[in-house]
Every structure is written in structure tokens, then in C-alpha cells.
Amino acid sequence: MTELTNAAAAATSIGLPEDQRRLIELDDAIAKIRTQIATADLARQRGQKPIDPDWFHRARTALRHLCRERAELLAQGTGHRRREKLKDALIGILRERHDPETWDGILAEAQARAEREGL
Hints:
The protein is mostly helical. The chain is built from four helices and no strands. Helix 1 packs antiparallel against helix 2 (18-47). The protein starts with 6 loop residues before the first helix and ends with a helix.
């Protein structure tokens, strides 16, 4: 039988950045709540027994808050993408303005600096 693992716990053990770990935790929590709601709905359909409205309200509220936090994290990530695009554009401009030998020297210096700084 396949062993099920907790994705959030696995993410913390592999050394991902904090924002990516939090996204995984949020996705895991959202999936759990959706599964609980679906299970309660199936039980309702099978037994003609209504879902507890207070529980349902709490579950939907928790789901809404988790989804909002997830959206905020994703929106913060778009700032990183813009910064990466700006860096790519800057590199493209500088590469066009320098001959290949000068560019190789600049690139070697940047790689050496990155290694010194542990990047």
C-alpha cells in the first residue's frame, strides 16, 4: 500500500525558501478543508442528513482566509519576477555593448563574487 505523506512536512525538510514552504503549507491546508467539505457533502447526500451550518461556516471562512494569504504570497512573488526580468534586460544591454572578451571577463568576475558570497 502506498504511504501518504504530509507535503508541508516534506517541504520543510528539503530546505526550500520560507515563502515557498508557506505556499506548500497553505496548499496542503486548503486541500484538507476542501476534502472535509466534500466528505461532509457526500455524507449528507448518502444519509439525507444536513451539514452542521456552524461547522460549514467555519470551514468556508478558514478556506477563504487561507486562499487570501496564498494570493498575497503569490502577489509578493511577482515583485521578484519583475526584478529578475529587469536583471535579464540589464544583462542583455551590457552584453550588447561589450565585445566578447570584455564580457567574458565581466562574467568571470561576477561568478567569482557570487562564489565568495555563497550565492
